[in-house]
Structure formats: structure tokens, C-alpha cells
Hints:
- The complex is a heterotrimer of chains A (360), B (306) and C (498).
- With 360 residues, chain A is mainly alpha-helical.
- Chain A has a domain at 73-310.
- Chain A has helices at residues 12-36, 41-54, 58-84, 92-110, 118-144, 148-168, 204-222, 224-234, 236-242, 246-273, 284-294, 299-323, 329-344, 346-349; strands at residues 2-6, 350-354.
- The two termini of chain A are 18 Å apart.
- Chain B has a single domain (5-124, 131-293), classed as ABC transporter involved in vitamin B12 uptake, BtuC (Orthogonal Bundle), CATH 1.10.3470.
- Helices cover 71% and strands 0% of the residues of chain B.
- In chain B, helix 1 (5-31) runs antiparallel to helix 11 (236-258), helix 2 (39-57) packs parallel to helix 4 and helix 3 (60-84) packs antiparallel against helix 9 (187-209).
- The radius of gyration of chain B is 19 Å and the shape is globular.
- Chain B starts with a helix and ends in a 13-residue tail after the last helix.
- Chain C has 498 residues and is of the alpha/beta class.
- In chain C, 33% of the residues lie in helices and 24% in strands.
- Chain C starts with a strand and ends in a 5-residue tail after the last helix.
- Classes of the chains: A mainly alpha (360), B mainly alpha (306), C alpha/beta (498).
- At the A-B interface, helix 5, helix 6, helix 11 and helix 13 of A face helix 3, helix 4, helix 10 and helix 12 of B.
Amino acid sequence: MIRLEPRPDPSNIMIGLTPIFAVIATMIFGGMLFVFLGKNPVDAIRMIFWDPVFGEHAFYYRGQILVKAAPLIMIALGLSFGFRAGIWNIGAEGQFIMGAVIGGATGLALYPLDSFLVFPLMIVMGSIGGLLWALIPAYLKIKFNANEILVSLMLVYVAFNFLIGMVTGPLRNPDGFNFPESRSFQDFPSAHNPELWAGTGIHWGVLITLGMVIFAYIAITRHIFGFNVRLAGQAPRAAKFAGVDPNKMIAICLGISGALAGMAGLFELTGPAGKLTTTFPVGYGFTAIIVAFLGRLHPIGILFAGLLLAITYVGGDIIQSQLSLPKASIQVFQGMLLFFLLAVDILVNFKIRIGKGISK
Amino acid sequence: MDISIVSLIATLIVAATPILLAATGELIVEKSGVLNLGVEGMMIMGAICGFIAAVSTGSPLLGFCIAALSGALLSLLFAILTQYLLANQVASGLALTLFGLGLAALLGHSYSGIKPPSTPKIEWFGLSDIPVIGPIIFNHDLMIYFSLFLVFVVWIFLRFTRVGLILRAVGENHDAAHALGYKVIRRVLAIMFGGACAGLGGAYLSLIRVPQWTEGMTAGAGWIALAIVVFASWKPWRLILGAYLFGGVTILQLNLQANGFDIPVSYLSMAPYLVTIVVLVIMSADRTRASINAPASLGKIFHASS
Amino acid sequence: MTLIALNNLTKKYPGVIANDDITFEVGKGEIHALLGENGAGKSTLVKMIYGLVQPDYGMMRLEGKGFTPSEPRTARLAGIAMVFQHFSLFEALTVAENIALGMENPPSSSILSDRITKVSYKYGLSLDPKRLVGDLSVGERQRVEIIRCLLQDPKLLIMDEPTSVLTPQEVDALFLTLRRLRDEGTSILYISHKLEEIKVLCERATILRRGKVIGTCIPKNETAKSMAEMMVGSKLKSPKKSKANFGAPILEVNNLSLKSSDPFGTALKNISFNLRAGEVMGVAGVAGNGQDELMLALSGEVLSDLNSIKLENKQIGQSNPIQRRLLGLLTAPEERLGHAAAPEMSLAENTLLSGFQRQKLGRRGFLNKPGAIAFAEKIVQQFDVRTPSVRNGAKSLSGGNLQKFVIGREILQNPKVFIVNQPTWGVDAAAAAFIRQALLELAEGGAGVLVISQDLDELMEISDSFMVLSEGQISTPRPAKGITIEAIGLMMGGTKVA
């Protein structure tokens, strides 16, 4: 009989090892899935995990990894504070969309103004857009005790429909042959978020994300705010005892995650995406949740997890073109990664014991 | 204006049924103290597995059975994670949703555009010709009646059976239930029941309501089912009210679109989700009622530590 | 005639031997006490009898036959019933449903309700089968537990610390019931640490210390002090109570009324009292009468009317806990793990909970980690907290040691007013005496100390003045000198005593 015995203190070795276990398990089971689909598992796993970084066309792929990792990391950083405090923002995708729409609309309203202030203004407006969208579930939770998981999630669908309404209506490109899309920001230099060094994929969003990682690290380890977030998640009554105002905590955590998601949306819009279309949202807001957990809600962990997941996105593109598998199949991998991490996580707090009773 | 109230009601029942099925299952799961956010993933897996089974065998009934099985199996993953490996229920449910969505897309890759075998409506010997009542009550397929029957069975189970009492006790206070010697781990069965129901709900979409397979076709129905459980204050009969309300709003919005009402389509599409938020807020705002009706152990991790 | 005999029963857990070679027996129709301090092994022992835990070694015999229950169900079928210290009740379900859950093959609900009413009447434990358990008082909830047991005609009824939540009148009623059961032939295994009660109620007592049986005695032939010494193994020190001079009122509570946030909680009604500098004021009361609510209102975790609480000359009813700490009001709540301290965090981190602002453990919001470690070490040293390091998690400490840490953390911050709820609950005798002494010294230094406790003996020892909290209201504060247990008991039951 297999029993679980609680450890007196969490095992630090396991905290470091378990993400690695999870990745290996994903590779094994994912490989089995590919066999089932009639594809060579070794090739497939290699295409997902190795080729993007070291393969033939890696010089192109690596830039793509950074492009995809930046929004994932930025959003996940914001989410991690709330998650630590037990505040579940599942609607980051909606905040991402609203940030892009509000920030983008600001820019388009100023077209074709040529000023270096346009882009920063758009960043601010994008953050505000995401922030306000996230404050809706915050307000409803504080005032009415409404479950923020469900409210933030419903608002994703609302935001998505709002986006469609905008690109088929007020934000439709007047010079654009009536397609449901906005003007391209590539035509608007003051609002464009270009690749700063050719071939690297690094745009302003990537740089700011790196800065955010450092900020978040300092906040969570050295600042009373980070301490209070951890406290609120681990022992809510003790947090109240310490004087933490739960309502402020809800508003701040949801606000931060909304603002960061909105900012990420703005960078994505003005950079890699280029314009507002009905297919603008690609699920970063949801994948960021996986990144946050995979990174154990810690800024450095999130940095690595974001890179890892970005690699799988690029890998997903590769297997789509090389093995004719649908794009969504990579989601299976990402879901599996989270599954396995959650599964092996138990080793951090429990020991496995086989057999009955204690040895004398 | 060409909206017939009668056909509106009849169609809303069809629209509501997948959510009703999924919500009924989730109600049992939550009553046992577990919050499974993976309903969306289980529904879409039911949709594709049921679809594949029905198309391959020509029997929609078999499709539904396979759909229930697939939902139950997927929920077993969630059950193992949360009940044996003590993982966080929110994260596990989300992982389930993502995994299910991806796996369904993968499996369904070559099945878009195919028409499934049709499910006949039940013949009630001419009763469906009665004006007004006929189309509303007597012109439906088997699954609709089954969904109502399921709610009835769940109500009886919770209210009048010993096992139902034990389930409620576990959801209310799993530590006390354990101290009394009840095996909390049997919640796994409740979780699998929830998965099976979600699978049925998904299959209803792909086999009857649409009927077709498209990637991501559940479009948030699983999340609405979760909201409806809260709306119903965890009481079975109120699930019907909630599901039909949602179905009503969706159908009304589709009808208004079809009749050329001047509101842009996308804003009308928002309506069901906004309504759900409003309903959630109203239900949650009454804190005293909520704390008496929500299973007190909901979402908490249980570890037998004797 | 022996009902149940335990021979060489042993149970080990990692790092500790909970029960070491336990041998004793309980006779038929006997009320037998199981005596011991916290951590002596009483709980583990009865869990083995009840089938919740399996012994590593040793044997049990019930009425001469081997008895090895693998689960509570087996024990129940054999005639063993148990009323736990922490009730296994479901608040959202009715009395009848709760009782049905505790039975093997409950009859239909109408027959069950009938039987419940009959039994409750027979033994003086009145209960309405249809009420939701969540609406019952603590004493009434215990009755549900007892009736649940009685409906199974048990041979052995095990009661774990039954009177810790009862008023003196309810205790008398319970004893009548237990004696009645004994006269009918039921054996009772009565776990308690309340020596006076055991003297009154029990025929024999088996004493456990550190997992071993120290001996079996006849309580009538012992004194409370001699039994306590057997339990603890050394002579008890009574805390020194020196005469104090009281200063001006330092905490004034004026018509404090507050609704409870818990639907099953108790609302506070017009509470008014003054606490003077240097005074120790005891607040007696059985759990569930508003103690939690009073603590939360005084600590600032729940805000009240601006003028309902005054500290020195500031109205602090609307101030949050941090503001109150900066003004000198510190508190130690009842729940050590989860409220007073975060279980997963280290002792050093836990100092930040109340000390961040007041002890300058931070600058502009940034944590002063070395400062926190130093403060934690100071607490550990001065309050004799047994722990290998301040980096250990709070949950790794024993109850008594954690309580010493929590109280030490507040006392070392030199509060003007210190309020503590159940200071020595679940704490071993040596640590309890230490804590009581620390409270007295704090008051001697000029602070006002408010002690909320269910332990009347403790309050009588250390309080200068006294009031009773009952159903959210307090009795008029009066000097502790000269008050009798009778009067207190009546006050707690709600009867007004002059």
C-alpha cells in the first residue's frame, strides 16, 4: 500500500526538481500520443523542444521565442501576485484584448500625428484599459462577494465580442477595402513597436518585460507588499490580524494583473500583430496561467517557464507545417505540462511510503 | 416582426439542454465539496468523442454513451490530481480544460464539415399537434426528456437516500465525515458522474443542437454551466430555471439578429454573458443565504491525517 | 467485572512514541477517568479503541474476546461509542440527519425523529430533531453527539474533554446523565484534565504521562494537587500575584455593539467597561458567547463605531489593526496556527505580522530581514521557546511553545494594552505557568491586560477584576476577590447575580 506522509518542512530539493520531472513526463507521454497519431515520437519531440532553439532555422525561431515569451511572462507576472493571495484572475485574455483595443484606439484617434509621445501614451492607455477591465470583477467581488473566476471569465467573451464590434465598426480601417480590421500600425511610425535589433525579435515589450521580472522579484522577496500577498494566500486570518485589508488586496492584485495584461496586449498589437483583427486574441491570457503555475508563481520561475512555453508554441508551428498536425494539438502538450507539474508537486510536501506501519 | 413565442420557447429548451446536463453533473460534484473548473474541457471531449462514435457506427445513442464515458475518463484525471495527489483544485480544473480543448481539436481534426446521424424526435401520438403546448412540451428528442429526468433523479438522490446524505455531509465538512468513518475519497465517483454529464452535454451540441463538429464549439458553455450551479444555490430544480433562462437569452439574441434589429451582432452576442454576471452578482450578494447553501468544504483540500 | 482490557498497547509516529506499552482495564458500569496533560497520548489511545488508528503492538480484549477494530464502524457494532472533543457535526444539516450519519443502519427519518425525542427526554437532553445544527448552541450540539451515541445502546461511552464548552449548570446536568447511564450498566471512559470534576464523577482514574501509564488511582482518595503532580511529574508552581497600584483608565469601551460576520456567531450588545493601567481584567465565558467577536472588535480586525473604543484619549473604533498597534494596543488571538501565526512561515517571518511597523522591521516598505531574525531570537530566548532555529516553520512547534512565542512577540513590544484570548488553552502546565507569570509581570510594569478565558481557575488566579461574557453581553465588572464559582456559573448561564 502506498501512503503519503507529510514532511515537517517543504523540501527545497523537490521544489527545484519537480518542474524538471514534469517536463520529462510530458515528453514521454506526449511522445506516446504522437505514436498513437502515427508520427515518429522522437522527431516530434525534437521538433517541439529542440529545433526552436538549436535546429536548422533556429536563427529565425529564436526571435519568435522571445516574441511569444514576452507577453506570456508579463501577464504571468501580474497573475502570480493574485494567485499567491488566492485571488483567481482567469480573465487575463479579456484584459489583454481590452488593453489592445483601448490603447490601439487612442493611437488611431491621433493618426497621423508625428510625436514621440504617441507610443508612451498608448502604453499608458493600454494598461488603463486592462486595469479597468480587471477592476470590474474586483469591484463585484468586494461589493457583492461574486466569484472572480466566473466574472473575469465571462468578461473575456464580452471583451472578444467588443473587439469584433470595434473592428467591424468604429475602428475599421477607412482606407482598407472594408475588411474587418483596423489600420496597420506599421503605417503609423509614432505608434509602431518595431523590432529593435533585426532578427532578434526584441521589441519594447520584451525589454519592459525583463524590467518587470526584476521589479516583481524585488517586490515578492523584499517588500512588505510581497510578504502580505504571500501571507494572505497562506493564512487569510493571520493576514487580517497583521492588518492587511482584504479588499485593498483584491483590488491591487486584480488591478496589477489587468494592467500588465493590458500592457502586453498593447505591445503585441503595435508590434508582432500589427493591427486589430478578429483573430487578434491567440490565448496568451490563458497560457499565461500555465506559465504562472509552472514557474511556481515566482518571477524567476516564470521567466523560465515563459521561455519554455514559448518554445512549445514555436515547436507547435513546426509540427504543424512538418507533420500536418492541427495547431491546437500543442495545447494538449501545454495542458499535460501543467497536469504533470500539479501531480509531482505533492512530492514537495509529502514523502511516499510503501507498506503498512512504521519500521521500528 | 416574426418572432413566435412558442417556437422561441421550444428552441430555448434545445439551447439550454447541453448546459443543463453539464450543470446537473457539476452540482453533484460541488455538493461533494469539489470545484471542478474543467467542465468546458469535459464537454468538448464529449462533443468530439460522441461525434466520432456516432459517425463511425451510425448510432447517435452509442455516440452519447461514448461521450459520457469520455467525460468520465477525463474527469478521472482531475480526480486523481485533486483527491489523491492533493493538487490545487482551481489549477487542476484549468489544466483539464486546456488539455481537453487541445485533445478535442486534435481528435476532431479530420471531422469538420461532416454531418452526424440524426437523432429522431420522440413521437407522442399526435400530442405535438396541440397548439402552444404541443411544440413546447411534446416535440423534443430523447435527451431533453432525459435531462429533466436526470435533475429529478439527482433531487431524489440528494434528499432521500443515505448515500446522498453522506455526499452532502462530505461536502459540508469533510473532516467530520472522515472522523465518522466515511470514506471521503469516494468523491471520485461524484467527480466522474460530473464528467459523464458534461460529456453528454457536449455530445448534445455536436449531435443534435448544431449538429456538426467545429473546433472550440462549446464556446464557453462549460463556464456558464458552472455559473448556473451558483445561480441555482446548489438546488437541483433551480438548475432548470437557470439553464432555460440562459437558453432564452441566447435564442432571443439570435432571433433579434435574424430579424434585422439594428444592434450590431457582436453586442447582442455579449448579452448572455452579461446576464450571467448579473445573476451571479445577485445570488452572491446575499451573504447569509450563500453561506448556508454553498457546501462549506467547497474547494478545500482534504488529507486523511489520522 | 472487566468490560475492556488493554494490554501493552503501543503506537509510534515518526519522531515520537504516542502510546508506550499501555496496560489497564475499565470495568462494567464504571466511570473511569483517563487523565493526562496535552500530548500525553490520551487521544491516540482512544482512537485505537474506536478503530480510527491501528496499534503497532499490543492487544485489546472486549468482554474477554479479542478486539481489533479496523475502522470505527467495527467498533460501533461492538458497542463502543465516542463523543469527540471537536464535534463531527454538519451545520447545514438537521439534528436528525446528523444523528443518522453517526449510525450504522439508521431507521427511516420519522421513526428516527421519534426515537431521538424519546431518548432526549429520558436523559434530560432536550433536542428538536428538525433544527439545523448550525442554529444550536455549543451545549446543545454536544447533546446531539451524545444522543447519537446513546441511540446505539453502547457498552462503552468514551467522552473526550466534554465539559470544556459547558457552563457549570450544564456540567451538572451532564453528570446526572452519565451517572444514570452508569447505573444502567454502561461504562464510561472520561478523558479530562479537570481534576475537580474527576474527583466528583469518576470511580477510578488512569494517569498517562508522555505516552506511558503512570498508575491507576481512586480519585476520592486523592487531592487535585496530588493528581496534578502525578500528571506533570513535578511540583507545580503557582504564579505569584503581587499587589498592584492601578493607574488611570487606559482602555475605555463604551456601548460597543457589533453584528457578527458569521451567520452562526454571536452579536455584541452594548459592551462597556474600563481597563486601568496595571490591572489584569479577566473575562470569563464559555466558548461561543462572543469572545471571538470581542477580540476582533478590540484588535481592529473588525471596525466599530468611532467612539465605542478609546485608547488613552484617542477614539480608535474606526482604526485598523496597524494603527492600533502604533498606539500601543496589542492582541493575541485564540487560534495560534492560522490566526496569530502563519503556519507555513518561519518564526522570523511571523514577527513581521505584528512587529513590522512597531518594531521598525522595515524601511519604506522594504523588509528588514536581519532585524526580524534578531527579534525572533530575542523572543525565543526570553520566553523559553523550544525550537532548533527561528527559521523553522511555525507549524513545526508544539502548541505550548508556539503560544509562548506568540505571547512573547507581543509582550516584548511593550504594549500599553494587551488583550489575549485563551492564553493557555491546550498548553502544558509548565508553559501555562510561564505565560501566566509573564502576564502578571506585564501588568506590574504598568500595562493594562485583558484576559479572555474559559478556564475559571486560571482567571481566579491572575485577575484583579472580573466580568463574564454571556450571549454577547457582559456582567458588571467587579473585583475578583471574594467571587464564588457558583456566582460565575450563574452569570455565564445568563441569570443575573447581584
